[in-house]
Amino acid sequence: MKTFWKAQLLVLVCLASAVLWSQAGSKSNSESSSANSSVSLNRVRVSGNVEEGMLTHKVVLPYPEYAKANRIQGQVVLHVVIDKKGKVIQVKPISGHPKLIPTAVDAVQQWRYRPYFLNGEAVEVETTVTVNFNLANV
Description:
Layout: H1 2-24, H2 29-38, E1 43-45, H3 48-52, E2 55-57, H4 65-69, E3 74-82, E4 88-95, H5 101-108, E5 112-113, E6 116-118, E7 121-133
Parallel strand pairs: 1-7
Antiparallel strand pairs: 2-5, 3-4, 3-7, 6-7
């Protein structure tokens, strides 16, 4: 019988601590509504397919000679940050052949996009860009 009471007491303690824990981090309604109205997002994550539709200026650089001579082809995937005006401000390679990455990065840094608006405000965008290198197109 003692075990039963201990189990009930443990359940009550767990429930009480869960309630107190959830209340500890919450603000009053007036505080939270004023905080939410002043919050603005600086950057959003957007699918590569969605952001591709926002592309206004695309630069395609010549196929790298070393890669062409050695029959290297494939995709280069890049993580890209676009500023509020649509200019690419950061490019980091995710995957791809090391001999193709520099050309892909150089090209994408010159791309321009339409600004992305969220709630009527322009925001920075994080996305992935895939650059395809195909010898059949050379």
